[in-house]
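Reviewers of the previous submission asked for a worked example of the structure-prediction workflow described in the proposal, so we include one complete record here. The input consisted solely of the amino acid sequence. No template or homolog information was supplied to the procedure at any stage.
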Amino acid sequence: MSGRIDRFKKRKELIKKNQSLPFVRGVTDQELVDKLLRQGINSDRVTSLGYSTDLNVSVEVNAEEVETLLSELRASFHKDRLEQLIDETKRGVISSIAGPFGLGKIISAYDKTGGNVDTVHNARAGVYATQEEKQRYDDRGEYNSSNYHGHKDYKARNEADSNLQDEGKLVDSYTGNVMGVNENRHLDHQIPASEVHNDPGRILAEIDGPGAANADSNLNSTSEHINNKSGKGKLTTEEFLAKLERTAPERKARIDELSNKQDLTGQEKRELERLKRHDDVDPKLMREKEKEAREEYDDTINKEYYTSKKFIKNTVSTGAVEGAKMGVQQAFGYLLVEFFSSAIVEIKDAYNNGFEGESLYKDIKVRLIRIGRNIAGKWKGVVKGFSAGFISGFISNLITTLVNMFVTTAKRFVRMIREGVFSLLKALKLILFPPADMSFAETMHEAMKLIAAGGVVIAGVALEEVIDKLILGVPFLVPFAPIVTAVIVGSLTAIAMSLVAYLIDKMDILGVIKAQETKFILENLDKDIDEKLKKCDRISEEIDEFLGESSFLLPQSS
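From that input alone, the workflow returned the following structure tokens.
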């Protein structure tokens, strides 16, 4: 804009200067004017200035010409974007082979099923991150009933329930009926004491077994017929209820048979009482007791373990290790990409322009030195790559640990989390700290492409296993399987990433590409106008020069 203002001021000065000419301000000599007009136009002089003497030029513009010009500019814009996409795909292939499917695969060899930190869920599934915790479980010792049934909390609850029974106020926990004063009663561990003793989660949290088993919510008074060996015994709640449901037809038939019998033996009376007690069990009430006991038991274990110094220390230390591994992958991968990219440029230059040295050896030496200098100049990118990799590695380790609190992750899934978190963090960084010249819509558009690229990489990691098996099925490719897999999957992933980016650009949900196209057209039109205005300025100056040469024909004003 300032350039146009300057040119406008310059033209005003020229006009002001020309106003001093005699034919503008003074009185002209008509005879001299007629003589000048009779001289005609010196075509050679005009041609020497580079201009046409043909004045039959149409200055009208029709809609077709405008549309043709705009179409050409649009085509130029999309051609530039296509070339950029192709260049990014080439670099993406190298980056994928060197990064996620090269170094990433090497680093993932140290990944573990279930992650790097022991969790209660994984321990109960028999999956340990450390040998130390597995050994502690193996050394737990045999279950001893007296340690659990002789615990002070068990005795205290038993005494309290005995007093309630004597007062006729004790309710059977599994039937909801008031227990008789003389009824034989058992104090049952809702979660069997043997299960608590052998629970890997409890051992991981280093919680005392008898203390956990004898929590108030886990102790329930019920009839001995319900809790003896022929009843619940050491069965879990669901196992016992399944048994009752399975034997219901026979039990009801037996109850009817014994109830209709006139004289019952002592054994038959006890059998009838047992069967009736089993029939009185309320599955809903029993499941509620089970749910309450297990929730409190699991909450105690989770709170004790996940707030322990042991868990926090392991999470931080393994996070730092994972961060360093991911940082090295990104930094070294960046160097490899720069090396291969520079090498390709040098190879193309050698092919097109020949050797730079007197021999092949000297040529290679010169080019390697140039590649080395180029890579050395990229040290900021290496530091940036390492720091971004470290942060994503640390966070991915934390996310993997959180996921393994609920489900055990496979080794490959750990790698998927790592690569996914890296892409997500790049998108988040772009959103939170966008470049100064990037609008919000452009930021969100690019962030969508980064997130989509992360999804493609995750899919590539999943595909890698399939490709690996196919390659291993070809005998002569077995020795080269890792390299071939990295090249194939890396190339496919890079191409897929480019296609996804192209589709996002095509959809243009936020209107970013349309805005860029408009900006491109306006900038090119402005550039064309500027060039024509400069040409007009040159013409104006040369005309002024031409008039200056002819001014001797005009009289000077007095």
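The chain has a mean pLDDT of 79. We consider this example representative of the routine output the project will generate in years two and three.
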